[in-house]
Amino acid sequence: MTGERVALVTGASSGIGAETARLLASRGMRVIVNYLHNHDAAKEVVADIEKAGGTAAAVQADVRDPAAVEAMTECARNTWGGVDVLVHNALTPYAIKSFQDMTWPELGSKLDDELKAAYVVTKAVLPHMTARAGRIIFIGTGLSRRPRAGMIALGTAKAALAQFARYLAQELGPQGITVNVVEPGPVAETRISAQVFDDDLTKRQVAATPMGRLARPRDVAQAVAFFADADNDFITGSTTAVNGGMAMY
């Protein structure tokens, strides 16, 4: 083991997670590329990192499963000594429909999955993070502040995640651990954007953005990397929008 910091990025086989894993590795971190289903994509991210001279490992785990997450973090402890940076990006399934058409199991399961996953991964990394100037970054969504039709399940669950992060920031600050949330607006070049945005909606979203385009995964990864930096030790409990000015808080 060397002095290099270790980052665990959940949901890192594609999109924001993959870009974050690549960027943190390029800045000298050893990266655990967590994935649920897409082994080949996760291995490709690892291959990209190694080709660029970095160090990474792909580890499968359902972030809602305490035993699987504990096994993943145990692997990190045994191999690299622990986890310094947690980037919780994994997105659990959710229904896209109006409240009037939604059942409680659809809304309730998203709330449960969102908070359970955040709880499980945070609980798993904390015991070996406290002495390592830890950084915890949760990926939220602008939908937690600005509602959009059909997105009540995701927006409500991510709003709960943001408040969860603030309570963690208050409790963990005395231990030198920062906790922050990065809230992207609409992000192009992702599986979710392809599912939710048609051409007309994309054009309207771009027209409403002062920067003249939607966010890209790299834009979000840059914000995550800022909070993950070892020198960034006095910003905690914050929520940062990455939306090109579409919404200004």
TrEMBL record:
Specify whether Oxidoreductase is a keyword of the entry: yes
InterPro entries recorded: NAD(P)-bd_dom_sf, SDR, SDR_fam
Keyword list (alphabetical) reads: Oxidoreductase
One GO MF term? oxidoreductase activity
| E.C. numbers | 1.1.1.-
Family matches, as Gene3D superfamilies: NAD(P)-binding Rossmann-like Domain
Residue spans making up a coiled coil are: none
Q: What class of enzyme is it?
A: oxidoreductase
Q: What's this protein's family per the entry?
A: Belongs to the short-chain dehydrogenases/reductases (SDR) family.
- Can you name this protein? SDR family NAD(P)-dependent oxidoreductase
Species name: Kutzneria chonburiensis
